[in-house]
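PROTOCOL LOG
Step 1. Enter all chains and additional molecules of the complex.
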Amino acid sequence: MALEVMARAASPIPLDIAFRVEPGTLLALVGHSGSGKTTLLRTIAGLWRPDHARVAVNGTTWLDTAARVDLPTHRRAVGVVFQNYALFPHMTAAQNVMAAMQRPDRAEAERILDLVNLLGLSGRKPAQLSGGQQQRVAVARALARRPQALLLDEPFSAVDRATRETLYAEIIGLRASLAMPVVLVTHDMNEAQLLADSMVVIDKGHTVREGTTAQVMADPDALRAMGIREVAAMLPAVVVEHLSDGLTRLDAPGGPLFLPGITAAPGASVRVRIMAHEVIVSRARPEGLSAQNILKGTVTRIVSGKGPAVTVHVAIGAHEILARITRRAAGQMGLQPGETVHAIVKSMSVARDHVARTIDGARA
Amino acid sequence: MDWTALWLSLRLAGWTVAILLPVAVLAGRFLACRQFRAKGLVEALVMLPLVLPPTVFGFYLLVAFGRNSPVGDLWQGLFGHQLVFTFEGLVLASVIFNLPFAIQPAQRGFEAVPVEVREAAACCGMSPLTALRKVELPLAWPGVMTAMVLTFAHTLGEFGIVLMVGGSIPGETKTIAISIYDRVQAFDDQGAATMSAVLVAISLFTIALTYWLSARMGRRLS
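Step 2. Run joint prediction.
Step 3. Record the structure below.
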């Protein structure tokens, strides 16, 4: 039940993109505003028709301009979460959810609302709900149709940072139970890295790079359009304890991590995004250093691009951490693949919204 | 008090509203959501009755509905009597004359429904007709209701067109507005005063009802 998309158009923006999303996986379409990512999402939903396009889900063709197939939006089994949610203001949360059902079923609506942690608020109108709650209703409504593809259009952009962290965890938790392909449109690289399995980077209507999230996020050339300082690695960790000084001790591959601002309860699994430009590499285990986090690993690759920096890939157990250092430093150190190094991460360099709770800890 | 004239006016207003309700919904929805080349021209045509003197408009309708006009001939062929100076002719004239009062507020009502909400309805699997019924109409309802109330009240008060197209046949085309005029001409100030007061009361009641209903509608959304 993969989602296959191909779109080519000359206007309103030039577009020439094709991608495929496997069932049960989340693909992030990332790019600046005006890059064409929302146009692609609208093409899938049938709200926009490019000159040449093909959209097929699970073998069913929704759009094929060559074969003159073009199902109207309401005949496409698609769930869409709009940027501003577009809830029906005259309906309660439950009625909004039921509005998307073939046969409205109150009990089923309550069950879906429970799934997005909205139990007890089903009788409220959108105007009586907070931004985060409205977003959850929008997600519930999108799921209520039992869609064959779920489309999320910048769904976190209208809520504050704290709410966003909670919603990330909920989407991560929800994803485990979703069997359909999911497409997330975002310009936020942190969001893409925390949530997506694979990514397509779009610039001016063209694909810059596509691949797994780890591949794309380790590739400075792919991220040139989005900002080279977005290069980052993802490390899994488990919360051990909250310390009295405000730091939290986590168990990570390669050693303990001390990070600030963690709200997840001890025992919760998290994923930590570590920005490559914040990582220092040292041959010897440093002494007398203010940085709290020193992870021992092995250099696997040193990738240089056009600029003065190189990306050092350091394997830590089964995982990898990235360090953007100058080519000069790498040369002075004589770094070679296979050598043992220490990757140093400042606690304060990990922003709190760069840590996402994963399934186990989603409700903690 | 000319009860026949009052009843005729109420019937005329009722029929006008009944015919214009679907017209206002469909035309208002169409004009609110579609962009096309001649849109400005269509909107101007709809607004035309608002600026033309009723006598001018009535004159053209009289010519258009008359015995030797295509519309008049067709009506004569179908129903065996002419269209002008009949209640049916009056209803038709009233419908055309009220187009701006019906379509304009309905169009504003539909324009107030955000595009994403309409798109969300389609993404929820609603056909255009279901979306209109379940989402767009409830949201555009204040506009549609304003349209209907304005049409009703305006029909009650219309004078020039009725006189031109309908004449003043008691029980057939003599509305309350014309009856009031007749009374004044006959120096029956008492009768004119009573009927004027009744007309003021009915108009006030209808408009108050609209405000009350739209306030209630506003509360429903918040």
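Step 4. Note key features.
The mean pLDDT of chain B is 90.
Residues 189-221 of chain B form the longest helix (33 residues).
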